Amino acid sequence: MEQRGRRLTDAFVAALELRKHLREGTAFCDALTVLKLQIETLEDDYPEWHPAPYSFHGMLKLFVYLEVTGDSYRSLTRHPELADVFGLGQIPNESVISRTWRNRFDDDVRRYITASAHCLVKEIHNQGLSVPEVRPLEEVKQSSEETTDSAEDATEFSDEEIYRTTRLAREHGFGPFDSERAQNATYEDTRFFELQTFIGMVGCGTPQGAARFKFRRGKEYGPHGDTHLRAVKQFDPESLLKGFQQATERLLSVIQSESSFRRPVTVAIDITTIRYFGNIEGMPMVSGTKDGEGRAFKFATLSIVGWNIPLILAVEPVRESSSWDENPPNRVHRVVRRLVRRAQEHVPIEMVLCDREFDSKAVYQTLSNLDVNYLIPKRIHSAERENIETMDEDEQEVAVESASVHVEQGSHSMQFLYVPSTKSDGTAVFATNLRVSADEAQAVCRRYSSRWQIENEYKSIKNDFLAKTSSKDYRVRLFYFVFAVLLHNIWRLTDFLLKIGVGGEMEYAPVLTAGECVELVCSALLPPD
């Protein structure tokens, strides 16, 4: 099992290495040319004396190309220039390609090629990368459905292993939360956590979820829906966020026993919205949305991104000034300060990435005061437009402008980096307190691309872990969101422990889907039908 796990790991690493080059703007064929596949766990079924003129490594690259593009054997033979991409003297003919797949490659090699190529196709489509050669995403999805059994054989994770690992993660996550209810209460807090997990899994409202939970677990085991909501309201925001902090510390302690977070990490801060459609009277925590028409609850999070294990380290409610309340204007730099300080209790932070919503001198200075580096895209105003026009006249693609921040909280030196935009033909501007030369600017700004991970986190939280509710009580809304974030972290811890169990890591891509994890958390709580 360890060998198969390592082979799958190598396949994903190859895909993620290619994705890294593609995100940097490298053409697909150029990225494949420089790619060095890890083939120590793969066997060439042609013996050394076999007269095959094509290298094993080169043919592997050729088939990765075919799986990514969906091209036919015949189509490939019409492009002799691709031989250099694969490191081959020439493109083999159709019969050689066919024999290689059938006779030279065993099942493990074929799984390696398929897993690596399909992972890359999904990453390209999910991130919106411009790769004309890539095949449609639906073709990969259909293929994946057809080969589910093969994929299961490749991972070799038994239900018992996943169940045991998930249960371990669940126990580390639920313990720190305490509603401070009376000791002689009918139900312990853990019963409410079990019900909350179940509601999130089945994706229904509290009353229906509670009824279904009782049916599954027993009439006397689980609380009624109204009882559940009353218990949830016992968690005041401060104690709830404190419990999340403690749970995060426990999860990190498990990770740190297996790996090291001693090196400073890169984190991303963002704000997500949970739409609200009810009456807004007397609802100070409901804010307007960017389109100006919607209403939503807003939550800020700080997440580890990049090459480390993607966990959400801190959550902060966002209270904005709205036309229907008397809230003071939102001081976003205070939200940033609280998030970073909580995260620094767990890990050292080297770089903070924020989006344009955090583009302000107060945020810049707050992060500088916290002794962390920052990289934040800047809104384009008249001064930036003038600089970009000057760059165009001088035919410059990159420029660095030195500046300084002077606000009530302090002052510091910083820079504005003008680099080619990765989303359009124009120029993007980033603010940073790093000392960066013009030659380094583009490489530094590419670090911002790792923020895409936080968008995936929000999708998982909302689609896989967040229980539905129509409650107007903000305590319920906050509890449901914080608990969903906790389940996301448990999923990521479970995924990490599974990877460790087979002797390797697969970077960001999980081996256990969010939906599978939630179902397994509940399976540890609920007897089978």
TrEMBL record:
Which residue ranges have biased composition labelled Acidic residues?
Answer: 146-157
Taxonomically, which superkingdom?
A: Archaea
Region of interest (Disordered), residue spans: 137-157
Domain Transposase IS4-like: where? 335-487
- GO term, biological process aspect, one: DNA transposition
Per its record, what are the GO molecular function terms?
A: DNA binding; transposase activity
Matching entries from InterPro entries are given as: RNaseH-like_sf, Transposase_11
Q: What is this protein called?
A: Transposase DDE domain protein
